Amino acid sequence: MKQQRRGAGLGTRILAALIVVLCVAAVTAWLVALIIGPLIFHDHMLMVESVSPEPEVITHAEEAFDAAWTLTLALALLAAVATSVIVTLFLVRRIISPISTVRGAVTKVADGDYTARVPEVSMGAEFTELMDAFNTMASKLDQTESTRKRLLSDLAHEMRTPVATVDGYLEAMQDGVAHADDQTLVMLREQTARLTRLAEDISLVSAAEERHLSLQPAPTQVGELLTTAEGQTRGRYREKRVNLFVDATAQSQEIGVTVDSGRIGQVLTNLLDNALHHTDPGDEVTLRAAHSTTSVTIEVADTGHGIATEHLPHVFERFYRVDTARDRQHGGSGIGLAIVRSIITAHGGTVRAHSDGPGAGAVFTVELPRQSE
């Protein structure tokens, strides 16, 4: 690999620029003085000659003027160069120090240390903006790396459970301890279906985040979306004895939205299943809709376990669980809400979660653009 050629340092370039400016100024001053100065001085001496008509006096005076001017210009140029060197050294030290700090932090980030930060330095608004931008970038990279590590760890755990179950049963069947009866085959199919569903969910989220999610938007009434979602989850709610209500005015249900009804149905089903997982028998879950002049809002509100404040910013992240043991016991993969956010974002909408804390229930709100009249 060809090594990149390094140019002159910042200090050298600043000093060279200042010296060039000084030289141009000195040459300009010398040329102007050479042409104009002697003429003006000579005119004055001619005026003096009318009073003291001695030519040698004028000649000596003009020579003295030229010598004095040349010496003055030389001394001024030397003083300016010396001042430029001092100012350059001061500026370079002030500038190089934060630049070296940023370079060191960049090197650490390039080596995988995303905790590197640049301390604040009083070098003006431009340097402050640069350092703030770098620190923000490093923080996001650090967060992304943490998410990646957690994702890989959780993905390994999610795959390990069904794989271990299938492997255990196959080994038992091989040893003659278990038999391939209907119950065993059903259990094996459930575990392989769980793996398939996990792979499909991850693929869906990845496609949405990369803006490759295939959508088939069409005009749809909000009421149809609510009815379909309720019908798909009603049996599971009845089995757990959790009360499910649909609260939407006739006007709201007739409001139109241009969406992929299958994908939005998946969103509402995921939200209702999430609410079911975090409620107890006797709790209530309400699916409601409202609208404004520009948007349609769909809410899933429950009276269940609630969400602590520190968890709210992370509930839509992949594999994030508020209660790991409880969620895994219910068979959740921790990716359902990530799918919700990905699909809603692909539709140009927003989704948010709110809770007053543990035991206070939770509200998930989906907001979609309203269909043009």
From TrEMBL:
Locate the transmembrane regions by residue number.
12-41, 67-92
> Where does it sit, as one GO cellular component term?
plasma membrane
Keyword match Phosphoprotein: yes
Query: Keyword set for this entry?
Result: Kinase, Membrane, Phosphoprotein, Transferase, Transmembrane, Transmembrane helix, Two-component regulatory system
Predominant location category: membrane
Record flagged with keyword Zinc? no
Enzyme type, top EC level: transferase
- Please state where this protein is localized: Cell membrane
MF (Gene Ontology): phosphorelay sensor kinase activity
Question: Which superkingdom, per the lineage?
Answer: Bacteria
- Name the coiled-coil region(s): none
The record's section on SUPFAM superfamilies has: ATPase domain of HSP90 chaperone/DNA topoisomerase II/histidine kinase, HAMP domain-like, Homodimeric domain of signal transducing histidine kinase
Which CDD domains does the UniProt record give? HAMP, HATPase, HisKA
- EC numbers: 2.7.13.3
Supply the Gene3D superfamilies for this chain: 1.10.287.130, 6.10.340.10, Histidine kinase-like ATPase, C-terminal domain (3.30.565.10)
The reaction(s) annotated as catalysed by this protein in its Swiss-Prot or TrEMBL entry are: ATP + protein L-histidine = ADP + protein N-phospho-L-histidine
User: Which parts of the sequence belong to the Histidine kinase domain?
Assistant: 154-372
Q: Which InterPro entries does this UniProt record tie to the protein?
A: HAMP_dom, HATPase_C_sf, HATPase_dom, His_kinase_dom, HisK_dim/P_dom, HisK_dim/P_sf, Sig_transdc_His_kin-like_C, TCS_sensor_his_kinase
**HAMP domain boundaries:** 93-146
What is this protein's name?
histidine kinase
